[in-house]
Write a structure and sequence with these properties.
PyrdxlP-dep_Trfase_small; 3 domains; three-stranded antiparallel beta sheet; alanine-glyoxylate transaminase activity; Aspartate Aminotransferase, domain 2; Aspartate Aminotransferase, domain 1; EC 2.6.1.44; transferase
């Protein structure tokens, strides 16, 4: 018994003869009877079965695969169900329990609806005795799922909370800033406390966080950060090559150069890599370099030249000031310099140099000297007219007023600088920073041709592309004027507190940062923690001679240009109250 031949079922009437198979008419009659039972249930749904709709259906493995039309490997917790099973070999096991027939079609596991064998569905097996079905559960082998009867009512509230995150499209790239975007719906499942959110500078897609107001890195616009989440792509694929080419072209507009002989470079690295490019490509051992000193970064640039064998001479100014024109003219007349370097805004002191006047002086007194500008803390917040002022190199980085994450070294080189590189007598002392390797790569990318020397960062380049798109969406003069307006507001607030700046002369004060002397006897370590408690981050001093006596307030990029943000006002309030908590009484 149990052989496939004859398909005999437990509990069926005995056949004539010990093993006599049924006649053909009998087989046809039995099949018709079973088919009718599978499609036409005789029992109405009972209240108990309706309650059973809330019970998840669960399957369990059975050691012996069934042959009765139910899915192999399924066993039921209800004894009335397990008692009526067919066996494949190994004899029979008769039971007086009610006969139960199961659908011949295997249900789709995990599928909702009648095919999932919901207790309320017509296809769900019922005992033939007419007794109401008792609530039952199935032992779990597959994951437990809600029944189809009440899945929608149970799932809808939760799905309504989730779908806003799954279905909401990312905010479009509006220019110039995210303040132009449509407001997203309120998030009523945000785990942050409302009191914290009310005090935090929130943006549409960023977590609440302390406002970063140091002289770089700075706060980022939402669209810039979303550009970083672009899927992985080939650095020589057509899509990325097009984006990189547009990025290089937009840099020409930012630096205000239309001369085809000039060349922008974008290489993975920090602003310091720009120093290496200048020193390795434009100087040779023994070349004289004049470094104008306005703070910490002039010392470092001079050290970089020394590393490559050049001979740097520093022309230092008092802290908070810049070298005077007559002193620079005198130095240029005394010695022939291959390069002169100037830090446009020194991040350690906030001192602004007058690039236009300096370039005019150099062209008049020493026209063969190349003019190199360290614009790490100025590009994007200060006016730089590459062609009009006759600059040869401007180096910068992505993380300051340009408004991107750190990781890109950006250099603009003039045709004269490229010619000086090509005329050098010795090989560049740097391999990675050599323009011999990078110049054809950048030229190809700008022409939107794939090229390779070292792998760029597609995500960072896309972020730079987005930021430059925003910056160039309005006239540069408006951007610089806005930075100057906010800078003057901050500097007036500092003066109202009775505090002084390192750059005490208005003509020496930068648009993008302010270096503030602390009250006598107060150290940066006393005030910076107070500001952090108020969700504002300033930087401590960096100039090695006075590092503990001042703090630095960065105000550039989206914190200044986005009218919806109140970063600056909050920072000024935090500064005032933080000083009071540290024991300072403003006049």
């Amino acid at each position: 018994m149990g052989e496939l031949a004859g398909r005999q079922y437990v509990g069926a009437p005995p056949r004539s003869g010990a093993h006599a198979p049924p006649s053909a008419p009998a087989q046809a009659e039995e099949k018709a009877e079973l088919r009718a039972k599978h499609t036409a249930p005789t029992l109405a749904t009972t209240p108990a079965e309706e309650r059973d709709a809330a019970t998840p259906l669960v399957f369990a493995r059975e050691r012996t695969p069934g042959l009765c039309g139910r899915p192999p490997g399924l066993a039921y917790a209800n004894p009335a169900v397990n008692g009526n099973r067919c066996l494949s070999g190994g004899g029979s096991r008769r039971s007086a329990r009610p006969r139960l027939t199961l659908p011949r079609t295997r249900p789709e596991v995990g599928k909702l609806g009648p095919e999932r064998l919901s207790p309320t569905s017509p296809e769900f097996p019922r005992p033939e005795t007419g007794t109401p079905a008792t609530p039952r559960r199935l032992l779990s082998f597959y994951p437990s799922l809600p029944s189809a009867a009440n899945l929608a009512s149970r799932a809808q509230p939760r799905l309504s909370l989730i779908e806003r995150h799954l279905d909401v499209k990312p905010p479009p790239l509006n220019t110039p800033y995210s303040s132009d975007r449509a407001a997203l719906p309120d998030d009523d499942i945000d785990p942050q406390q409302a009191a914290v959110l009310d005090d935090e500078p929130t943006m549409s897609t960023q977590e609440a966080h302390p406002t970063l107001l140091i002289p770089g890195p700075i706060e980022f616009d939402d669209a810039v950060l979303q550009s970083m989440s672009h899927y992985s792509e080939s650095h020589v694929g057509a899509a990325f090559v097009a984006v990189f080419g547009e990025t290089l072209s937009m840099l020409r507009k930012l630096f205000q150069t239309t001369n085809p002989a000039s060349q922008p470079f974008v290489i993975s690295g920090s602003g310091t890599l720009g120093w290496d490019q200048v020193a390795a490509n434009l100087t040779e051992p023994g070349d004289e370099v004049l470094v104008l000193h306005t703070g910490y970064f002039a010392d470092s640039f001079a050290d970089c030249f020394d590393t490559y064998g050049a001979k740097p001479t520093q022309l230092k100014a008092p802290i908070g000031d810049r070298p005077q024109q007559d002193a620079v003219e005198k130095a240029l007349k005394e010695r022939k310099y291959k390069l002169i370097t100037v830090t446009h805004v020194d991040t350690s002191t906030g001192v602004l140099s007058d690039i236009k006047s300096l370039a005019e002086l150099v062209h008049r007194v020493s026209p063969e000297t190349l003019i190199v500008v360290d614009g790490v803390c100025s590009v994007g917040s200060e006016d730089i007219r590459f062609d009009d002022w006759g600059i040869d190199v401007v180096l910068t980085a992505s993380q300051k007023a340009i408004g991107c994450p750190a990781g890109l070294s950006i250099v603009m080189a003039s045709g004269r600088a490229i010619e000086a590189f090509q005329a050098r007598k010795t090989k560049p002392a740097s391999y990675f920073g050599s323009w011999k390797n990078w110049l054809p790569i950048m030229q190809n990318y700008e022409a939107k041709k794939p090229s390779y020397f070292a792998t760029p960062s597609p995500q960072l380049v896309r972020a730079l592309h987005t930021s430059l798109t925003q910056i160039l969406a309005s006239p540069l003069d408006q951007r610089f004027a806005r930075h100057k307006e906010v800078s003057q507001k901050i500097k007036q607030a500092v003066a109202d507190l009775g505090l002084k700046q390192l750059a005490d002369k208005p003509e020496n004060q930068a648009n993008g940062m302010t270096a503030i002397y602390l009250p006598e006897g107060m150290a940066a370590a006393q005030i910076l923690p107070n500001l952090l408690q108020k969700k504002v981050i300033f930087a401590g001093g960096l100039h090695k001679e006075i590092a503990t006596k001042y703090i630095r307030f960065g105000h550039m990029g989206v914190s200044v240009t986005d009218p919806r943000k109140n970063d600056i006002d909050r920072a000024l309030d935090a500064l005032k109250s933080g000083l009071a908590e540290a024991g300072y009484q403003a006049p």
